[in-house]
Specification:
This protein has six helices and twelve strands. A five-stranded mixed beta sheet has the order 3-2-1-5-8. It is elongated and about 95 Å long. The site of dinuclear copper ion has 9 residues, from loops.
Length: 304
């Protein structure tokens, strides 16, 4: 089992272990009885005819009532946990989550939007209000025992009450396209003061464009498909891209790599497909601001 980092995690694990152990005992009992009966009542003679079977009302009733009670125990236990898992406390700290192919964006109560890792204060319950701008995704925080689908056109929530500081995994568990496996990040649980300081450092308004571009390259998950060092990937590398005079395209024509070409390829990626690649890039980058697109272009310029 992974870390237990939320209040509900030990209880979820108890239920899991209960179901697991009961299943194991029943499995061994059924298989054991089967083997015992096979040996004990095997046919010893060609002419042997089995005697009449006497029914036992006691055994019959036990086989009906026993499993029914067991199932009801698991249902009641599981349903109580489920109700707690889907009912965020009213004082929870709310973070908005936008999922898109292939990254998560987190919007904090002060309006700051960050990509990459999710940072949360460790001293209060956290509620994530989530939506998707393209296809189905799913938010999974294994150490928090929290998981819920993210659905375009509506809001879903997960919440958790962190019990220890640290860095834990967070990832998408709904197949959402070519780079689904790259939709992975961390949830960083920090003491409130450290979290608050982190949050106040996330304002990117004054950041120089190439620096902002480098940050967005990570946060917007560009790096899952486009390397910055020439390594081949799902999409063309950004290294040495800028300034090419005649870049071959899939339709046989060529294009000069200037700011216009890069701009178009970010916000409308299916128009000009580089030779040897497929039109896999999602259209979701059209939602980037002008400043963000400019920052990415400035960053690509630096990768000579
Ligand atoms: Cu998003 Cu898989």
């Amino acid at each position: 089992m992974t870390d237990q980092a939320s209040a509900i995690a030990p209880e979820v694990d108890w239920l899991f272990h209960f179901v697991h152990i009961v299943s194991l005992i029943l499995f061994l009992a059924v298989i054991g009885a089967g083997i015992y009966f096979m040996v004990r009542y095997r046919r010893r003679d060609e002419r042997e005819v089995p005697g009449p079977v006497k029914e036992s009302a006691f055994v019959e009733a036990g086989l009906i009532i026993g499993p029914t009670l067991l199932v009801l125990v698991v249902f009641t236990w599981g349903f109580q946990l489920f109700l707690r898992q889907v009912t965020p406390p009213p004082d929870a700290y709310e973070i908005k989550v936008r999922a898109k192919q292939w990254a998560f964006e987190f919007e904090y109560p002060n309006g700051t939007v960050v990509g990459g890792d999710l940072h949360v204060p460790g001293d209060r319950p956290i509620k994530l209000t989530m939506t998707s701008i393209d296809v189905l995704h799913s938010m999974f925080l294994p150490a928090m025992r929290a998981k819920y689908d993210i659905i375009p056109g509506r809001y879903t929530t997960v919440w958790f009450d962190p019990t220890k500081d640290g860095t834990f995994e967070l990832f998408c568990t709904e197949y959402c396209g070519a780079s689904h496996s790259g939709m992975i990040a961390n949830v960083v649980v920090q003491p409130f003061e450290a979290f608050d300081e982190w949050l106040s450092n996330q304002n990117t308004d004054d950041m120089p464009l190439p620096e902002l571009g480098a940050k967005l390259y990570q946060q917007q998950a560009c790096q899952t498909c486009h390397s910055a060092d020439g390594t081949p990937g799902v999409g063309p590398t950004f290294a040495g891209l800028w300034g090419q005079a005649a870049r071959p395209l899939e339709d046989g024509s060529t294009v000069a790599v200037d700011a216009d070409y890069l701009y178009e390829s970010i916000v409308n990626p299916s128009v000009k497909i580089a030779e040897g690649y497929m039109p896999l890039m999602p259209a979701s980058y059209a939602s980037l601001s002008e400043r963000q697109v400019s920052a990415l272009i400035e960053y690509i310029k630096t990768l000579q």
